[in-house]
Amino acid sequence: MNVKSKTTVVLSNSFVLLLVGCFLGLTHLALAQNPSLLEVNPPEGPSDDQVSAIVNVRLIDGLGGQPLENAVVLIKSNRILQAGPANQVTVPEGAEITDGTGMSLLPGLIDSHLHNVNNNKALHAILTNGVTTVRDPGHPFRFYQSLYFAKAKMPRVYLTGAHLDGYPGVYRDQASLIRGTDHIRTLIRDYVTEGGSGIKIYFRLPLKYYETVLQTADFYHIPVVAHLELVDADDAIRAGLQGIEHVTSYGTSLADPEDAREFREAVEADNDYRRDGRYLLWSKIDLSADRVSEVLDLAVKHEAVLSPTLTTFERQSGDEEYQAKGFKNMLDFVGMAHQAGVTIVTGSHNSGKYAQRGLAYQREMELLVAAGMTPLEAISSSTIHNARYFRTQDRLGSIEPGKLADLILVEGDPSVDIKAMYAIKKVMLNGEWVDREEVVE
């Protein structure tokens, strides 16, 4: 190769690098200007500006206030146009009318913790049960390729990409095993480019890497959440962690130090020990101990969100005694966290021993109420609080003018009895009613 050819190659490579740098720079600028993070599959909305109206309905807006009886909500295209009492909202001529008599209108439910592997049937079923938005914390992007071939409506899907784990890993087909700080920076950049709207830390990643993960994610304006077993929750929160997935992630920070040490050593030796070992650890936790209130004070101070996924851990009398006792402590701790001021959000984790098939989310709402939340608080945890957790509250999570029309009609009054959330009658996604009988191929 002559000097001229070499120069051309160098210039070409420099030009490519310049283009890549410009692209990433524009990405950073766009994120900085629009902090609302996006789903990977924005649904299609109505093709015209048709106005639709939901009338004679009980309005529960997700913001925590008392329900509004005999309300009217107007939707134009895919946006909420107006919401208020019937005597203050005029339904225009030609509007498509839905009668909500005997029903409550809520924002579409948001699931902070759901896993899927190219299963469009399952996602559509979740949507028909009222969950219009989900986040999968930790599965690779390839697990959602089926979304791009879906013919039926799917919930909005937020992804974090493969979780970041330490060697030798746990679920290695779902993980990126971290080699060092430069590897972390490269991975997060690539995740953002692929549409990632968060990062998930898994439990074998050492604490020494948290700072790099958090700083890099913050550069891209995306949140970081974690499933903890070996790293104590208080240490992770001090490092800057914004979200803790699973109530069990708090276990080692609450337990007697010797019990916590034995648990960590057992998990270090065998990943699967945690499955039953969690219950044994939690059955011994003294929730009246000073360390429990200290950890909660820390979580409140640093605004660390908790997605407890109680449904997946639920055990009752009839199960092993230590399991039932351990779960009771988990449930009580969530109630204590809520009372202390920790933001609690709703995540189904797909299933639970005592949940009906496809309705783990509704069971989670019931358990949040059992932990001490009011039904309205559980509804806010399932809507606006999760929208904030996803950093998409300017688009989703409440029934307010200008927001996207993701709505559900529920028979009865879930602000009085949370069990009404099982009676989903109609679901609207992005301004269009979902065909709940649609066959998904």
TrEMBL record:
Family annotation (InterPro entries): Amidohydro-rel, Metal-dep_hydrolase_composite, Metal_Hydrolase, Metallo-dep_Hydrolase
Sample GO molecular function, one term: hydrolase activity, acting on carbon-nitrogen (but not peptide) bonds
Superkingdom of this protein's organism: Bacteria
Residue ranges of the TM segments: none
Pfam families: Amidohydro_1
Domain Amidohydrolase-related: 105-434
Protein name, per record: Imidazolonepropionase
Organism, scientific name: Cyclobacterium xiamenense
